[in-house]
Amino acid sequence: MSFCTSIHCMDGRIQEPTINYLKQTYGITYVDAITEPGPCKILADKTNKTLVDSILDRVNISVHKHGSKLVFISGHYDCAGNPCGEEEQKEQTSKSVEALKNQCPETEVIGLWIDREWTVHKI
Question: What per-residue confidence (pLDDT) applies to 50?
């Protein structure tokens, strides 16, 4: 039984493509999904401590209780919760990756981008 953690937007258009990508690409059995509108912005900006702490608490459950060894953070095309361009979201995602690496040094943290065709790409 293998778990990973995916921090991604609540947008229903990206749910299935993201989970399928993680299962197929990384051989994952179960994906612990942590959803918020625009999570890469939340973790990059760190302005809303309540949301940041909530996300990190859920990551810790996935890592320490389910044994997740991979953590993913993503941004996506046409995000209502983070209405900025692809390059800015990719920068936010990269900042989020670094913040998560500091929080969970025992896990591999990977950034993802979901494009307008709902195709998932590793950043």
Answer: 97
